[in-house]
Specification:
about 180 residues, alpha+beta, 4-stranded antiparallel beta sheet, 3-stranded antiparallel beta sheet, 2 helices, about 20% helix
Amino acid sequence: MSRIGKAPVVILQGVDVKKDGHTLTVKGPLGQLVRTFHPDMDIDVQEKEVIVTRPSESKLHKSLHGLTRALINNMVTGVNTGFEKRLEISGVGYRAEKKGNKLVMNLGFSHSVEMEDPEGIETIPETNTKVLVKGISKEAVGAHAANIRAKRPPEPYKGHGVRYSDEIVRRKEGKTGK
């Protein structure tokens, strides 16, 4: 049995979970998330918890079991507390600022890079070089943070670029003079 899949998802106070066929709707203080799951997975919504069971021991059902439970848990956590990713910008003249719902970054190019916030995601420049990406969907927050990082990934020689705050960039020595 999957160690992740067999654990029940605890429904936190203030969170409402409704099941309609294979679609799960989770409402909470921060918003609402809706997701349709694989029809083979049995999702049982009780008063204080959600239990996911699988119909057989096939490889597909084993892999879907833990995935379904993890996705439901992320939905419940997201509508209650939300998710956030922190990014750091390092480099001479590299900075970020907010203009309306766009994040405008100077990343060493001849032009500034503008990224519009997707629906349900908010980017907040904490300082000129630190950006916070927050929202209720873990998947969307991670994808938007990855898109921001992809505009100028950190390079290994001087470390300039956009990186996650907890990311460690392996540095290279570079050329040595005679």
